[in-house]
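Researcher: Last one for today. Full complex below.
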Amino acid sequence: ETGVTQSPTHLIKTRGQQVTLRCSSQSGHNTVSWYQQALGQGPQFIFQYYREEENGRGNFPPRFSGLQFPNYSSELNVNALELDDSALYLCASSYGLATYNEQFFGPGTRLTVL
Amino acid sequence: GIQVEQSPPDLILQEGANSTLRCNFSDSVNNLQWFHQNPWGQLINLFYIPSGTKQNGRLSATTVATERYSLLYISSSQTTDSGVYFCAVEGGSQGNLIFGKGTKLSVKP
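Model: Here's the assembly. Have a good evening.
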């Protein structure tokens, strides 16, 4: 069984640029959630995709957007990067919505915005 | 929204000591998970425990859903137990997890 994978591992961008982060869900899972973790804080929910549709969104502006593909892998896109976007971005997968299902996390992408 | 509070925020132990980490949450939930975040940022699943008690080796967890708290017990701690421990609860209709601020554990040899 393949676990959740993310790419790239690290990324450095400058303010105003755009970035795309990728996540492959654990085999058999159809739900992907994205979280942002600032230094010293717990992860904060960005949005969730279930069967290729956005199923819920946290308190993040529209410049954070995403996609889920037919194989259930997912992308997180961030436009017009700001310094405060520097964080660890984590994706999690589950079979079905997380209400009653355990979520499993990938190793994360560490984004630095200069 | 649901609030999740973890205590203590920091904990320093000598190798071999036991510890108890606490997670309080402000409303009823359907899902509660404990994670260990290693120094590289990976969140490792420890327990999926909406209610009841589970044990896995030196670790055990208990959730009392009616009283809105969960406890994580670490016995005979080892230096490899160091890191941040997070409690997370399911946050609403979309099923996202809401995390506490974590307990940072340092185990000294």
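The mean pLDDT of chain A is 93. Chain A touches chain B at residues 33, 35, 37, 41-45, 48, 55-58, 88, 90, 92, 97-105, 107-108, 110 (CB under 8 Å).
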